[in-house]
Write a structure and sequence with these properties.
alpha/beta, 11-stranded mixed β-sheet, Rossmann fold, globular
């Protein structure tokens, strides 16, 4: 199964508030060795045929800790995708950041607990390099699109991912800040690692929906949804401008991620 042309090589994984991206067709859920993926749609982005997957499934029915991340990434790989552009709603830990800001993170801290995080549970033992967690070429396209859109954004930031589905405690947020985290969310991991393990490119565009726990009185789903609705048009605009900027030929290290990564095995 595959989708021909340049567009079939790019996919958007939409997070909270980007589940209603205008679609031009439906491929449906894909059966994988890890179970069923979320639905996959075909969308038109600046004249390009791009795949779109709502991370949380139809009607935002899957909580962050129950999303089948392995099935989702595997399905996109099977459909011929080489580059993934994701979106995430996040809380701001860095007090300089404000609700409504966009962030293109450059690094990641994993504080999840129970999720399957790799495709390589068996031999050959595989240790993939994530010195650059996010694809530099896809990040560059997102940053350029943010600049051209004239929006308030941050071209770097450390994203910490928590298990959820609860929000974080103020003490946890203070700890994350000491560790160097700028933003916090529940869906930023393990997608980039799984993509890297399959030699795919991945970067994400985050929008700040709220200040993290302890930096405001309380955190609510209503606040996240309200801010998501407010910035949705801007996020779609940035994605629409960014995707055509992604080079058709990959010159990044992502596709060589399995080189020298295996004990007693060959890279893909």
């Amino acid at each position: 199964m595959g989708v021909g042309g340049r567009a079939g090589r790019v996919a958007i994984i939409g997070g909270s508030s980007l589940e209603g991206f205008p679609t031009a067709g439906e491929i449906g859920s894909v059966e994988t060795p890890y179970g069923q993926s979320s639905e996959v749609f075909v969308v038109d982005v600046s004249g390009l045929r791009v795949l779109f997957m709502p991370r949380h499934g139809a009607g935002h029915s899957l909580p962050p800790h129950r999303v089948n991340y392995r099935a989702n990434v595997w399905a996109l790989k099977r459909l011929g995708v080489e580059r993934i552009v994701a979106t995430n709603a996040v809380g701001a830990i860095n007090p300089s950041m404000r609700p409504g800001d966009l962030v293109v993170p450059h690094d990641l801290i994993d504080f999840t607990k129970l999720r399957p995080t790799t495709f390589y549970d068996e031999a050959p033992v595989t240790h993939v390099d994530v010195s650059q967690v996010y694809c530099p070429e896809v990040r560059r396209a997102l940053i350029e699109a943010c600049r051209e859109a004239g929006v308030r954004f941050w071209d770097h930031g450390v994203l910490v991912c928590t298990e959820g589905p609860r929000f974080e405690t103020p003490a946890e947020i203070r700890m994350f800040r000491l560790l160097g985290a700028d933003i916090v969310g529940m869906t930023g991991f393990p997608e980039p690692i799984l993509a890297r393990e399959l030699g795919m490119c991945y970067a994400t565009l985050c929008f700040v929906s709220n200040m993290a726990a302890g930096l405001q009185d309380r955190v609510s789903v209503e606040e996240v949804l309200r801010m998501g609705e407010k910035v949705r048009g801007v996020v779609v605009k940035v994605l629409t401008e960014a995707i055509p900027k992604i080079p058709e030929r990959r010159g990044c290290p992502c596709m060589r991620a399995l080189e020298s990564a295996r004990f007693g095995g060959q890279g893909c």
